[in-house]
Write a structure and sequence with these properties.
The protein has 321 residues and is α+β, with helices and mostly antiparallel strands. It has two domains: 2-127, Beta-Lactamase (2-Layer Sandwich), CATH 3.30.450; 198-313, PAS domain (Beta-Lactamase). Helices cover 44% and strands 22% of the residues. The protein has six helices and ten strands. The strands form two sheets. It has a five-stranded antiparallel beta sheet. A five-stranded antiparallel beta sheet has the order 7-6-10-9-8, with helices on both faces. It is rod-shaped and about 180 Å long.
Length: 321
């Protein structure tokens, strides 16, 4: 096994269960806590001495208690000074011995061979760890580059969103300005419509506006007293309306005016002995487009009565014989 300067086990090769035993409680990989009875004290002393010697220290025939039996073991302790990766660490090699029988092989040669093999194996694993670490580092570097690229894309997207947000805010401000202008125009239009309605209602002439299909578009209050009209009649055809006018050809004359653009003017009586001058003319918009007809009704009842009276006065009185 290989120990660091604090006695913690950093590497184990082979089966060491006869020499080491995990301590009860929290896991502890320190050699002094795991060494079995018979090894702890001698090895603690040898570990201190090994740092002061270049040659390995040999501990012969140490007795270790294993499951109510005694096992003799030779232990070699050597401080590692090379390669640089192992400096400051200590190698401990266990070798079982059978009783008092001496081994034929040279112990130092066997220990040196074991030390070299363990060192080489340890170095191989360190190299493997280094390669794995390098591979992990390269993968992390690649992941970092991908994350950096993703971050740049997100940054670019964020900038585009910020630009879009600013453009949307600018458009919203423009729309608010346009909306304010439209609201002002609507207010002006509503006021103009009120002025027009009041003007139409203040004159003594009844006016009826029809669209291109001769449906009711607008009318004055005086027109509603001649032709039966209510607000719900807006959009209704002229033929659906009833009136006091004795004018059965009103719809036909309106169609002719819309078709020929020729004014029509007639004097029409009513069923209540009134007379009206009914004038039908095209409705011309500001852009010079014909968009219906306008029917005006002027009360001429007084004029008709005066004409009748004059006719009566001008008629000669019969003279008797």
């Amino acid at each position: 096994m290989v120990l660091n300067s604090s006695g913690d086990i950093v590497y184990i090769s082979g089966r060491t269960g006869k020499y080491l035993e995990p301590a009860a409680g929290k896991a502890n990989w320190n050699f002094h806590a795991m060494a079995r009875d018979g090894l702890r004290a001698p090895l603690a002393t040898a570990l201190k001495q090994a740092t002061q010697h270049n040659a390995p220290l040999q501990l012969r025939g140490l007795a270790v208690s294993v499951q109510d039996a005694t096992q003799h073991v030779d232990v070699t302790v050597q401080a590692l000074r090379e390669p640089a990766a192992l400096q400051g660490m200590t190698m401990v090699v266990f070798r079982d011995v059978a009783g008092d029988i001496a081994e034929a092989a040279d112990p130092a040669t066997s220990v040196d061979f074991s030390l070299a093999a363990v060192q080489q194996q340890y170095l191989d694993e360190i190299q493997l760890l280094r390669e794995e670490t390098q591979a992990s580092k390269e993968e992390l570097q690649s992941s970092n580059e991908e994350l950096q690229s993703t971050n740049e894309e997100l940054q670019s997207t964020n900038e585009e969103l910020t630009t879009s947000k600013e453009e949307m805010q600018s458009m919203n401000e423009e729309l608010q300005t346009i909306n304010t202008e439209l609201q002002t125009k609507l207010d002006d239009l509503a006021l103009a419509q009120s002025d027009l309605q009041n003007t139409l209602n203040s004159i003594e002439i009844a006016v009826l506006f029809l669209d291109q299909q001769l449906n009711v578009r607008r009318y004055t209050d005086r027109a509603a007293k001649i032709i039966n009209l209510r607000e719900s009649d807006l959009g209704r055809p002229l033929t659906d309306l009833t009136s006091s006018l004795l004018y059965p050809n009103l719809h036909q004359d309106a169609q002719d005016t819309l078709r020929t653009l020729v004014f029509s003017e007639k004097q029409i009586p009513t069923n209540d002995d009134r007379w009206f001058t009914v004038r039908i003319m095209p409705y011309r918009r500001l852009d010079n487009v014909i968009d219906g007809v306008v029917i005006t009704l002027v009360d001429i009842s007084t004029t008709k009565k005066l004409e009748a009276a004059l006719r009566e006065q001008s008629t000669p009185t019969a003279i008797g014989p």
